[in-house]
Amino acid sequence: MHLYGTQSVDEHGQLTIGGTSAVTLAKTYGTPLFVYDTALIKERARAFVQTFERAGVQAQVAYASKAFSSIAMYQLAADEGLSLDVVSGGELFTAIRAGYPVERIHFHGNNKSDEELIFALDSAIGCIVVDNFHEIEQLKRLTKYKKVNINILLRVTPGIEAHTHDYITTGQADSKFGFDLHNGQADQAFQSVKDDSYISLLGMHCHIGSQIFDTAAFSLAAKKLIVKMLDWKTKSGFICSVLNLGGGFGIRYTEEDKPLKPEIYVEDMIKSIQLEIGQENYPMPEIWIEPGRSLVGDAGITLYKIGSQKEVPGLTNYLAVDGGMSDNIRPALYQAKYDAAVANKMNFDSTTTYTVAGKCCESGDKLIEKISLPKVEAGDTLAIFCTGAYGYSMASNYNRLPRPAVIFVEQGQHRIVIKRETYEDLVRLDCSLQGENMGMQS
After folding, report:
1. What InterPro entries does the entry give (predicted)?
2. Which CATH number do you get for residue 327?
3. In terms of domains, do 313 and 352 share one?
4. Are 356 and 325 in contact (CB under 8 A)?
5. 40 band by pLDDT with thresholds 50, 70 and 90
6. Whether the predicted model's global pTM rises above the 0.90 cut
7. Which of the following is catalytic: 240, 361, 386, 431?
8. What is the SS3 assignment for 311?
9. Residue 334 labelled as part of a binding site
């Protein structure tokens, strides 16, 4: 079992996170509970940022906030000097409420509404990543009507299939995202915006997938985009000032995963870009990247209370926890794998193989298949590691389960950053058929 960041085992044989016992956190805040090791988030953020700084390369490291969005998380990212990638009006609203510097906000998404784009324009955000021709026409109409300028990147699909799960590969040609780099769509989009009075084209963006464990795919993507940049310079005299290679930097969920350090991804990216443009005497663009999972993924741990058990003789020992697919849909959606430990029995021998099941009314609600753990009892605290990305952000109220609380932990200090939902929260937006304002015709 691999421990991450500030995780350790104390003299009582209990898992500690940020200098605090996980068992104590579970008792203090209840379970399920998302715990974030903020020292690890800061360490990862600084590794990306400082590698660019040491190389003397202009860059923006934008937190891809779909991995985990909250006011506190946005404030932490802002304090670390990160830019911010948002993909909806809700994420943008949260960023504005958090006081995020608007000039460092980038708005993504393949189906932005007029209302969302107006919100972005009125907020004077730093950049909109344009995904399709419909959005180009929206922006032309809205910026002309409001007489406001906006910086944009064109999202392109470079046709690269990174070594990743089919469900989370977004850079190949057959994708719902972006303008195809090879069938003329990217050129058509470029021609449509390059001379617009209110739209300022900065350059191109791509995202080739997730959980990428080598640098070759990023280098190939950079090469493909630079070929197109050179083509635009030759034909139109246009210079791209920004090259955004997206995110997708892998993390370790289990011992099978072999991620690289942030520094290695960045250093190889810089070398690849410098090599390609150096041969053509092209000005060095500002490099943008978008780490999300790699900042928060293995900094997050979910704590559960173990409840019932069921033995299927000769097949499986089930242990059930007080959460499940409602707070971590990834095992059911992606067949994602996780590691876990019994937080109050870290020094016990692992003698029993279990399947960790959730409490949702679905036979597929299994968080981990066949993991070796110490013999467990009801009331034990189970810690599932590396749940910081796409756990809370994809959580639901299926079966009317309240979403868990979220806390930040660092140097023995811990604080709640998202309150646990209550049953009252679950019905707050419901409308009764009893009463005067039924909205029905007789």
Report:
1. Ala_racemase/Decarboxylase_C, DAP_deCOOHase_LysA, De-COase2_C, De-COase2_CS, De-COase2_N, Orn/DAP/Arg_de-COase, PLP-binding_barrel
2. 2.40.37.10
3. yes
4. no
5. very high
6. yes
7. 361
8. strand
9. yes
φ and ψ at 307, to 5 degrees? -115, -110
Distance between CA atoms of residues 391 and 414, nearest Å: 20
- Indicate the residue type of 253: Y
Asked if pLDDT for residue 173 goes beyond 90, the answer is: no
State percent of the chain over pLDDT 70: 95
What is the per-residue pLDDT across 195-241, written as a single tens digit (0 to 9) for each?
999 999 999 999 998 999 999 999 999 999 999 999 999 999 999 99
Q: Which residues 6+ apart lie within 8 Å of 29 measured at CB? A: 405, 407, 416, 420
How far apart are alpha carbons 392 and 326 in whole angstroms? Answer: 9
Pairing mode, strands 300-312 and 33-37:
antiparallel
- The answer to the question of whether 46 is labelled as a binding residue is no
Share of the chain above pLDDT 90, in %: 90
Q: Is 362 annotated as a binding residue?
A: yes
Helices (H), 206-247: 216-236
Q: Is 360 a catalytic residue?
A: no
**Bridge partner residues of 15 (DSSP):** 9
Q: Can you give the residue range of the structural domain that contains 20?
A: 8-36+301-427
Tokens 């700084």 correspond to 53
Q: How many domains does the chain have?
A: 2
Name the residue with tokens 């942030």.
262
In the numeric block, which tokens belong to residue 263?
Answer: 């520094």
Asked which of 245-249, 407-411, 432-436 is least confident by mean pLDDT, the reply is 432-436
Same-domain status, 254 and 305: no
How big is the chain by its Cα radius of gyration, in Å? 24
